[in-house]
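Bumping with the actual sequence this time:
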Amino acid sequence: MQYQLDSLLRKQYKAELFETEKANTDQLTGMHNRHSFDRRCKALINKLAPSQYLGLAMIDVDYFKNYNDNYGHLEGNKVLVVVANRLKHCDADIVVRFGGEEFILVKTLQANELDWLNDLPKRFADDPIAHQYSPFNRITVSAGIVIDQNTTYRPSIKSLLATADVGVYKAKNAGRNISITDFVDPKQPEIE
């Protein structure tokens, strides 16, 4: 009887782990999803050493609506999977599909890594995915990158996301297919 009870408890535990993982994972790309982002990011921020910086990039696939409208949503989903796989190789601590065609990357940085992801558009140009409904004739991405150099006062995730979001809009307004990096003022504490 004890063996059967132990066996049932193990099965229940495995089922609960599976459901938790499923709730934290984007089904299409296999990346973490927005639901798990805050928890993972807070844990990473809490582990930062005083000499480390935090980089957060918000990445948006350019002209993705045109892609879906002309190639179909199934082909659009395939592109999202390819983009996700490329982003998984960007040396980030956290890689998240934030929603739709938006992705978030977060990385603990050293002082010599402050140019992290500036080459992101080139990574997509080196192995292009055709997109004839884009002025670039290929899939491109725009990125807003924020780097927190403040080792005394760490900004909130909300303010990092807001700054990165502004960077994405700057990149879009500058013609797309670029990365724009902003730095958090190391002298100013954040007030929430």
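The tokens above came from a reply further down the thread. The chain has one domain: 22-184.
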